[in-house]
Backbone:
């Protein structure tokens, strides 16, 4: 029997980026807010620079991440296969604890293209319906770039994002990304200085006529005080960023931008080590009454609330909706239902360049999480897809984040995997090789047979059915990747690489190979409750006092890292709650 | 809509205090809980003795790690670098027993892209594999009258068996040899390159081999010095031997 806690105005599920943003905005509106977080409280100062640099502990053994024994998923490629549990993480890394993924991300802070938000309309207009695969289920978002621009701006100034603007109020700027949508003002901070290999990539790209620009980054190029008065310090290029926590306060995280202010407010509380197991509904099923959670001793608690914000990691949001019986589960056979629909990930590949060891010394260990020079000529619809027979694209660049030796000791193709030749090749190539890691950062569009539902066999520690992912690459994405990877390799040739190894993304989708943690979709936003779970304000069509944050709402994934867009949507939604919903609680859009 | 008292909320959490340690749902508010430097530092491995391997297994694994990473004039091999000690401590610890991983059944074989689905944990796999390697070595030994254990073979003979396991032509009784071998070389190479804290990479020998400066953290003075050798020696989480003179 759950013990009932005092009523609150707002219950937030998960205290990562979006939970922190919503808590900050809704406490500012005078509401009493409690955030319930599955993992422990964490401050980045817990991981000081004298022992944070531990590749085995954090990168290999995943210490900061969710443990699969606590929660995992089952996975299969095709609907007629048996899904099996993900026993250890591989293709993506679900976060855990206060700060969520914002604690151990690289801090790449991109905006999506204006055309990304009206993707279906845009592509149909330019290429016609026959150009798209029949089973592709891409949609418009129901919100436009112009509507999100002030919210992107807010997040970038919160984080102190470092970069070179490419388009300020419609005016193209030298040195920035000329393809980006117009921004109201430049980035708050200049880009970081680029190491040798990243500079060399930019030179190679320029030789081929491209316009390279620094990757927008939440690793500070200089000290920064954000609009909340929270201060960040300059990044020291330690090369232990993604998978690690930054005690240097140099990486934008909820801990380094919002939480020091939020936690001091009298109308905010957080509960850590508490896993929400259900969103409770009233007997009509159309109103949330709060959440039920379980603490680490297995004790069950009920937190009543007027408004519920679901802000866990993408696929946990979907799982909780399914377990709570909110919305109609998606059925790929009938193409009906919305919860679990349009699951997407990313289409990542890489090119490794081996250079003359007598001439090049890259010191690959000097890097930050979102260091890098990129080009955007092949992203979204920035190029004519007509001759190529696919849609979508991605940015590409030398975004090498580290020279950590367990992960980053590349050897030329054909080298044995062990023995004296392997050892010599490691010695010869460490200093003169460029391995960007996620060099080609491609989109993944949505399909009728890529989705989530509940697994019939496997259970979690509470006996609940695990969520099941059915996901595979489709020809469109594989064609896209082959085209982009070849273009990327041409730049390495222009840079003077002696030997080039192309690591195309090939099917089938493999749960053991890390791509990114950018899973998207499953409870998408849109303008029609038959094809979306959320309206344009991230409000549930079925339960209007429930708002669902995160990349869960993306109808399909674009060729960028998602956090900037995730945060812009969170501010957009918070703005709608404050300006519209609180005045007149109920559906903000009438279908 | 007023605030609420901390006492009121803490009364719920108070029930969760076990002894003096908060072990469960904590209520946080009013100020940052600020445990600077509180991520526990893993204890450094004491290189003496063995925690997992039996004496016979020690002979085998030391021979194996020295073939995966052979010694050469500039850099020690896997044995001298401590890779066997590294694997021993990892198998005796959380890794060996899949601590934190999802280990509920049913166990069934899937396709490669569904990831590891073995019912055996790494500790059980090493135990079975090292026994099977010795058994193979003894039963296929044509050069000696009484079959020699793997550790007693010469390097070429050892390499031939390891290559056979890697390619699948040598089968190991009771487990998937090819999969085991993939994990084995991963573990050996991780021991070679991980911080010396964990028992391998003794004297930071692997880091010196490639020029990785280790747990240093401030390269601001070096980021714009393109194509210049970084001059400073590596540092581990425990510092440098010169900083910690043995008494």
Residues:
């Amino acid at each position: 029997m759950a013990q009932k806690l005092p009523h609150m105005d707002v219950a937030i599920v998960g205290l990562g980026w979006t939970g922190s943003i919503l808590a900050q905005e809704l406490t500012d509106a005078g509401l009493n807010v409690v955030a319930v977080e599955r993992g422990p409280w964490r401050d980045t100062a817990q991981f000081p620079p004298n022992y944070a640099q531990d590749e085995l502990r954090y990168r290999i053994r995943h210490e900061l991440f969710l443990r699969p024994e606590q929660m995992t998923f089952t996975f299969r490629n095709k609907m007629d296969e048996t899904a099996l549990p993900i026993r250890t993480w591989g293709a993506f890394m679900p976060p855990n604890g206060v700060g969520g993924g914002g604690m151990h991300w690289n801090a790449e802070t991109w905006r999506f293209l204006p055309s990304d938000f009206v993707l279906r309309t845009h592509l149909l207009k330019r290429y016609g319906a026959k150009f798209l695969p029949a089973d592709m289920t891409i949609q418009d978002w129901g919100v436009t770039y112009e509507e999100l621009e002030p919210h992107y701006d807010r997040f970038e100034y919160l984080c102190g994002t470092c970069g070179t603007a490419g388009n300020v109020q419609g005016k193209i700027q030298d040195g920035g990304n000329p393809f980006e949508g117009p921004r109201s003002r430049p980035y708050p901070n200049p880009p970081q200085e680029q190491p040798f290999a990243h500079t060399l990539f930019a030179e190679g790209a320029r030789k081929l006529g491209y316009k390279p620009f620094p990757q927008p980054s939440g690793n500070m190029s200089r000290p920064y005080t954000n609009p909340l008065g929270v201060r960040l310090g300059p990044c020291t290029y330690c090369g232990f960023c993604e998978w690690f926590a930054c005690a240097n306060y140099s990486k934008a995280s909820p801990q380094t931008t919002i939480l020091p202010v939020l936690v001091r407010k009298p109308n905010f509380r957080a509960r850590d080590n508490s896993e929400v197991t259900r969103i409770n509904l009233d007997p009509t099923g159309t109103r949330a009454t709060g959440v039920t959670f379980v603490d680490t001793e297995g004790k069950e608690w009920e937190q009543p609330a007027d408004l519920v914000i679901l802000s866990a990691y993408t696929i946990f949001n979907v799982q909780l909706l399914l377990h709570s019986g909110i919305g109609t589960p998606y059925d790929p056979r009938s193409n009906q239902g919305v919860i679990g629909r349009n699951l997407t990930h990313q289409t990542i590949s890489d090119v490794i360049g081996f250079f003359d060891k007598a001439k090049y010394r890259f010191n690959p260990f000097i890097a930050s999480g979102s260091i890098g020079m990129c080009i955007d000529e092949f992203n979204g619809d920035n190029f004519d897809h007509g001759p190529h027979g696919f849609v979508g694209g991605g940015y590409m660049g030398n975004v090498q984040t580290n020279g950590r030796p367990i992960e980053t000791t590349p050897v030329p193709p054909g080298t044995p995997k062990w023995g004296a030749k392997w050892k010599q090749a490691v010695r010869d190539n460490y200093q003169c090789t460029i391995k960007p890691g996620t060099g080609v950062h491609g989109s993944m569009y949505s399909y009728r047979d890529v989705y989530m539902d509940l697994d019939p066999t496997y259970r979690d520690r509470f006996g609940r059915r695990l969520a099941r992912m059915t996901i595979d690459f489709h020809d469109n994405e594989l064609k896209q990747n082959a085209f982009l990877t070849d273009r990327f390799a041409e730049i390495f040739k222009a840079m003077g690489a002696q030997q080039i190894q192309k690591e195309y993304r090939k099917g089938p989708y493999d749960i053991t190979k890390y791509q990114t943690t950018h899973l998207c979709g499953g409870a998408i936003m849109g303008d029609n409750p038959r094809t979306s779970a959320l309206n344009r304000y991230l409000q549930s069509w079925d339960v209007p006092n429930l708002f669902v944050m995160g990349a869960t709402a993306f109808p399909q994934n674009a060729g960028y890292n998602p956090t900037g867009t995730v945060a812009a949507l969170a501010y957009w939604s918070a703005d709608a709650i404050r300006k519209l919903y609180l005045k007149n609680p109920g559906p903000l859009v009438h279908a | 809509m007023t605030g609420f008292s901390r006492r009121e909320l803490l009364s719920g959490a108070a029930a969760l205090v076990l002894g003096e340690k908060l072990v469960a749902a904590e209520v946080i508010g009013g100020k940052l809980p600020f445990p600077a430097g509180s991520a526990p530092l893993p204890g450094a491995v004491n290189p003496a003795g063995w925690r997992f391997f039996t004496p016979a297994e020690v002979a085998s694994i030391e021979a194996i790690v020295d073939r995966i990473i052979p010694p050469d004039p500039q850099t020690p091999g896997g044995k001298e670098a401590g890779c066997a000690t590294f694997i021993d401590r990892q198998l005796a610890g959380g890794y060996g027993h899949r601590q934190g991983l999802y280990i509920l059944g049913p166990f069934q074989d899937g396709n490669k892209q569904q990831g590891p689905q073995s019912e055996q944990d790494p500790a059980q796999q090493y135990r079975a594999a090292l026994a099977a390697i010795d058994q193979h070595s003894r039963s296929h030994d044509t050069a000696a009258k009484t079959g020699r254990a793997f550790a007693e073979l010469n390097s070429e003979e050892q390499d031939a068996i390891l290559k056979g396991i890697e390619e699948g032509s040598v089968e190991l009784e009771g487990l998937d040899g090819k999969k085991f071998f993939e994990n084995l070389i991963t573990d050996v190479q991780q021991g070679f390159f991980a911080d010396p804290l964990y028992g391998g990479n003794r004297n930071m020998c692997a880091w010196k081999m490639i020029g990785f400066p280790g747990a240093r953290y401030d390269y601001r003075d070096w980021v714009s010095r393109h194509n210049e050798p970084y001059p400073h020696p590596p540092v581990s989480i425990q510092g440098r031997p010169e900083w910690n003179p043995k008494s």
